[in-house]
Write a structure and sequence with these properties.
The complex is a heterotrimer of chains A (288), B (404) and C (371). Chain A is mainly α. Chain A has eleven helices and two strands, in the order ααααββααααααα. Classes of the chains: A mainly alpha (288), B alpha/beta (404), C mainly alpha (371). Chains in contact: A-B, A-C, B-C.
Chain lengths: 288, 404, 371
Amino acid sequence: MTLFIQQLFNGLALGGVYCLAAIGLTLVFGVLRIPNLAHGALYMLGAYITYFFLTTVGVPYIAAIGIAAIMLFIVGVGLERLVFHPLRNSPHTHHMIAAVGAMFFFQALAQAIWGADFRRMDTPITGELRILGAEISAQRIVIIVTAVIVLALLALFIKRSIHGQTIEAIEQDRVGASLVGINPSMVSMLTLGLSALLATIAAGLVAPINLLSPTMGDALNLKVFAIIILGGLGSLPGAIVGGFALAIAETMTATYISSAVGEAVAFIVLVAVLAIKPNGLFTKAVQR
Amino acid sequence: MNSVSRSRRRRLSAAAVLGAIALTATACGGGGGSGEGDTVVIGYTGPLSGGGAAYGENVKIGLEMAIDDLNADGVEVDGNPVTLELKSLDDKYAPSTAASNAQRLADQDKAPVVVSPNAGAIKAIQQINSGRSNFLVSAYTSDPAIVQADNPLTMMIPPNFESYAEEFSETAMEHGGKKLALLGTQSEYGQQWTKSIKDAWSEAGGKIGGDNSVDYATVSDFAGPVSKALSEKPDAIFVGGPSQPTALIMEEARKQGFKGSFLVMDQAKLDEMATVTKLDNLKNSVGVLPVSEYEDPGTEDFLKKFAEKAGEKKVPTSETALNYQGIAIIAKAMEAAGTTDDPEKIREAISEALPDVDDKYKVNGFPDEITEQGHLLNPNLEATFLNEDGKYTKVPIEQVSDEK
Amino acid sequence: MNAMKNPRIIGTTAVILLLGLTPLAFAQENYAMRVITVGMCAAIAVYGLNIILGFTGQLNLAQGGFFGIGAYGVGLLTTDYDWSFWAAFVVSVIGTAVIGYLCGLIALRTKDEYFAIFTMAIGFIIFLVISRWEPVTHAHSGVNNVKFPEGGGLVDFESPVAMFYLVFAILLICVYTTYAIRRSSVGRTLLTIRTSEDLADAIGVRVGFSKQLAFAASAVFGGVGGGLYATVVGFIGPDAASIDKTFEFLMFILVGGMGTVAGPLLGSMIVTFLFELFQDFQAYRFIVLGPIIVALVIFAPRGIVGYLGGFVDKRSRRRRAEAARGADDDLDSTGASTSGGAGDHRARNLADGIESGAGRTGGTPSSEETK
């Protein structure tokens, strides 16, 4: 029983990791329909820049994440301007391959600057909590809580703020939105910048429980796509449910069946769900 | 918008891009070709980008250091001074790319020797290295399947990993207890190790829990797999993959209250692991001996040169040290064979060259013989036990045969 | 029709002839022969992708997985079970067809982004099975000493030149099949689906069945390419089925030109060549290659063949304007448009399709705008 509770908490923490990583991607893929395969690379870049400010420059942890997030916002905007904007009328295939090209570039760049060696990012959040005999580190609790808060704030931002509403307007009706004077180009920049910013917050929080390397985003990349598709494109509640559900499924199958099945379970669940509900769990009325 | 001029602009840009590529193509094409005069290319194909890049870089540093030192000392083959030159290509850990790279190094750069640091790649290279193309593979892998293939042009550098299993099991059992949990990485090599440790552990009369191996490269959070392994209440845990994630797993296990001993696969180096976690988390472990603990004649100088080249912070590993030795052996074999372009003769001459290698190149357990199938054997193989005081104590290892 | 004068056919034939003659120049260069032969194996799989993506407009991301199934079928049957290459090859291809058909049954229930990610998941599951099912696939240890094809005493396939021509011959069949499909009613059906599924449905096309066939056919090509790849390289590991392979194939088809006859071949050869070329930069090559890939996608969105096709179209349009005669055998109905997200995009595609249906070729200002 202790094992079950322990793994439940581990699963929740992993779910937090997945959700944080998925948020930015949901925005871009769900709203703008750009399958940004470079998202994992942005996450990686965010981690390294946070690491740079934290370790090399020596600013406090939260400030380091903040500075890195702002820098990544600019990188995200740049990516939109240089890569995705020229492709705005192209089909997915083009975006995908362009994103792969960008990913190659970012990875090679990170390796050129920081080297190929693994690095460890220290965090001031230390200590463990004992709940019902299960052990869970404070950092992981921060991850779970932040994931939920950030998602809630994001939902609020989209519903309440002018900028957020323009994003939603574009999502609902692209032609109509431009008719009422919303500039789709501005919205695209904002969305990509925001997604890179969110990826950096995720990376700053998650990196301390693992390691930094130029390929650290790869492992997350595929799973995060599975999560947002499972939840239903563009659905923020879907991303939360999808993230936590897949993480707990993964931890539990790894515990009670085998680790190999645990690794595949995210994709097996995805295939099973889509076979029954071809548009994901939380389908919104999306324009086709 | 004037779409006609727009489409023309596009065409022009496309032409510009294509033109730029063509230009680079010609520029690069001109640079190739074999070296002039008495330059001999030593080929290297390894993972220089992607997940294995750190490993590939470590090997490369060893090769570069050896070639710099050998050129400074002067290599003389058949009365002519010879300059060695390293040519490295990236294979991203993909075997078929590695084989293409090796073929290219042998064909275009006339490299008589190609170094490769991964078993899959070496197997793919062994498909082509003795036949239409001829070149010696300097194989940095402890997988004995490489020499079991009976490839006439293979030189295997590190000891057979199966040698470690028995001594590791006994040591870990002595300091921990009878119950073992398996938490190695899900790579080819990790799985072979897991199997070998499993056999040795049961033979020594211990009990083994389920196989909890996970892919160290793709796991986002090690807490889950560690909790699962610990739920079996083990006295000892087998871990191992690249040093840094291995260190994280051990740290997590200690955090979750594990008090027993660790068996650490040879891919992970205890001193390198100490750079990402506290030494306290690593105590009570049996693993391979750090390079800095060797007492070979050249070790001290090697450590100094390594620090100059790679920086004080970087820990020298056996990937660097053993490949440093390997190139020195090959250079000496070229001298002994009196040829730089006949790989068969070079391979044959390794045996007689071994005793003549200068002491400065003996840094990490120098071999004194090469088996018929091409395995370099170091007579005094040692591993280490990192005790409660954080001191490395040596553990002698008896080597097993490479036969299946 | 006037096939002999069609610049596209002349161009494609020239590329094929040139490729067919490479052994004359490189017979002694094992490295060049190897790179070209491996590139042709990939090209075969890319022709498969061309049917489902280029013609039918469905972004199938499982192609690397099917390539892996073909490779492992041949690899395992010729080593562990000691079959002859030919028997193993035929069985692997049939096996890939069956698996492809079954995957298609479920996958094609989904659409657009869902289809892409769904097939990506299928591809990844195939990869995981191959890299984890140790007792059967030897997991990461790979399959060693895959047999050469038996020459029956007539040909020695251990010779790189003989192997080259074997792969070349099969590649030719694929090119011809692609050409034949394009010209047939099947090809037109698929192109209609690409333009608009609703439109296709409305004019009585069996959309589901046609997509299903296209998907299975693309899997078969993947299996053929994989099977040949296994025997060409002699050793295969799980990377033969990895998702990276899929993206490699996508890159090939995009650079070459989607939905064209010569595109997959040209793209495979050019990108393979680029990758080998930049090897000299080792780890840093992607700092250069990454932006090149992005630039190619942005500035030549219809691929090299589409790009060259633009010139041809312009010329033939002019000539046709002079002759003022209509009926046209449309070989290239403008590479790249798959189903897009936005409504206006969709509408443009439809318009584009109707235009080409009415006898105008691509490269017109309006279709240029949508690319």
